[in-house]
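One thing: can you check what follows?
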Amino acid sequence: MLFRKSICNSAAVLLAFSASTLVAQSNHHSPYAGAVFVMTNNNDANRILRFARQANGALIPLGSTATGGRGSGGVIDPLGSQNSLLLTQDAGFLLAVNSASGTISSFEVQGANLKLVDVKESGGSAPNAIAQWSNLVYVLNTAGNSNVVGFRLEDGRLIPIPNGSGYLSAAISGGSSLAFTQDGKFLLAAERVTNKIDAFPLNADGSVGKAVLTSYPGIFDLAVSSSGLVLSAGGPTIGASIVNSDGTVNLLSDPKLLGGGACWVVVTPNGSFAYASNPGGSVIDGYSVSGSGVLTAIGTGNVGTTTSAAKPLDLAVSFDGKYLYSNNAGDGTLGVWAINADGTLAAQTPVVLPTADASAGLNGIAAY
């Protein structure tokens, strides 16, 4: 196992395995096709809601597991971020932030069940996003001096990297998203207040160097495709970029207009389609993505709808690329769509969350 034994130390090793092979190895005892996890972000006691995913995309609720920390609480989008809950690339471990506690939790994924393995201090204040590449894990802390802090993931344990921290451009920069480039050479952070992308170069020992800053008006979050493209969304637009060898970020084509302030973006495993949630309009926008970074609206661009009260925030795509799930913080549901071959979405019955969990400050969703 790549992450269980911590033997994956290069992109060559990592890419030698397909996502489907890794998931099969990690969860070969599971009777289900996959799982979906949602974080309550409860201020009293943060928990992860667990759902078994059936082959047709439908979800079976299996209860919840405590993170060992406290969330921020709040109402709609209190963390203001993407990837506050993250599955490792082999679906072997689930990582969660505990914003009020200033910690991150690591769980071993056992089918659709979770076993808490470790809880560590985040190395800063108010953590709200996590990124993972190979056996490296970085967390984004948004309060205080706004920094990123690194760990090595060893059998689910989070081992702090000596001198493994880097600072964003300002103390209150609005850090909202964190992602590694596909080749693992840079760690990218989005600053929604200062409208910048920070590209931290990765050193041989797993620490990061000083960030290279690129102005990016309206940036909220980042998603990296299997081809290496960086999809960004924020405010009214979505765009595709590449990260140059010097850490600067180049937009490849004119950003596409999104309706109602879409912010959260995900890319299918094959890199063909990108979806962005629009809480203002309670819709999902969809685009096909070319190898050169050109985005083309699927139909009218609005490929999925929810009730006006839903307010879809975080999104997750199953590892097989067949299903899209949304965390609807407005009405306490999970949106469920089948992804058709042309990128259009076929709506399925939403999952209604327990009332107490739905009102606790929901943030974060992950699926495989």
Remarks:
- Helices lie at 2-5, 11-15, 19-26, 355-358.
- The chain is about 5% helix and 50% strand.
